[in-house]
Amino acid sequence: MIRKIIQIDDKKCNGCGACAEACHEGAIGMVNGKAKLLRDDYCDGLGDCLPTCPTGAISFVEREAAAYDEKAVQENMRKKNRMNSPSVGVHAGCPGSRMQRIQHSQESAPSAPMQAESQLRQWPCQIKLVPVGAPCFEGAKLLIAADCSAYAYARMHEDFMRGKVTLIGCPKLDNVDYSEKLTQIIQNNNIQSVTIVRMEVPCCGGLELAAKKALQASGKFIPWQVVTISIDGKILE
């Protein structure tokens, strides 16, 4: 039958998993870090997933598709609930939300406490809160960092924040596209360089994408780089 159903643009999907969590029918799943429509007959065509997507990767189309099967959906959700019970411990959804324990060697700990100095040069530092025309942006080297990166990478202040204006954010938690505001910041100020520090988890791709879109939309040629941090605190090549 011809009916309305969602489609997901693989190139736009940043793997945040928000749509999979919003889909009450279990029609969307994460496959190799990307959102996929798993089965046509699980999709009711109502589009609860659309407003949750920060990159606009989801849209409606009309095409040949199996009819929505409510009984199959209910059975699938019962199976999911059993699999996701605490006794089983199986994770579903965004890979960035998967619970993991991280072991660190105690040998690397310093023998005596060291006095560290904060390298944060301005307040506020959240992308959503900082004014576009803040004086700190003039002539600044800009650091756009994922919220989690400072907790995962031990030398964040010394290696990345020193001498830079730091902006932090998480597109999954804020559920916004930062690109418009970042574009205004870059366009309206004399930014010298941009460094993007993100985590390795797929949902962090939204921050990198927003920064790249802003650099392109600004019309300026500015040196930039992306640094990816692993969840155990290492810089990935």
Automatic annotation (TrEMBL):
Which Pfam families does the UniProt record give? Fer4_7 (PF12838)
Q: Domain 4Fe-4S ferredoxin-type: where?
A: 4-33, 34-63
Which InterPro entries does the entry mention?
A: 4Fe4S_Fe-S-bd, Corrinoid_activation_enz
| Top-rank lineage group of the source organism | Bacteria
Q: What is this protein called?
A: Ferredoxin
Q: Which organism is it from?
A: Anaerovibrio slackiae
